[in-house]
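task queued by scheduler; priority normal; single chain, no ligands, no partner chains; default sampling; output format set to structure tokens
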Amino acid sequence: MVKSFNSSNDWFSLEAFNARVEQSVFDNGTFYEVLYEYMEKHGLINLSYSELISRTYLSSQICCSMMSIHRDSIKENTDNNEDKNTDKNKDKKEYHPSMKTILAWCIGLKYPEAKIYQLLELAGYALSPSDRVHRAYRDLLHVFDTHNLSVRDCNNHLRKWEIDEKHFLGSFGPDEVM
């Protein structure tokens, strides 16, 4: 629990700020904790890399980066070996997926809209309603589940809306076959 601070000067202290950050992580979880919690709850955690690539339209390297953090932490917990694995995990946890990667991952794996917005926020992103590309992403997030849209379908809609291909979701070009 967060230590309470009585005066307003205490509230502005580094100790109080750090306590609020710690409480926020405790209350909300980290990006990867929320990402994996959903995957475990919905039976997605054991998907093969080829299935992840096919659903998310992301490269094998990105899928490996997203999943290896989880799989290595499981290995670390079962091995109770904190020497080499801890250093490895520390480096991998520095992998910060782009907004497009998070969107492709979540759309491909059918995360609910609210969970996607939570993950974007935990990763430090926000979709601006006044940005044309972000508006397109928002529109897709609002309907992808009810219309059973894949990442490829979403990219086709982005193309129709004349969004530049550099903003397409996933790692593959629109006409590449996986």
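post-processing summary
- Residues 56 and 105 are 5 Å apart (CA to CA).
- Residues 74-92 have pLDDT under 50 and may be disordered.
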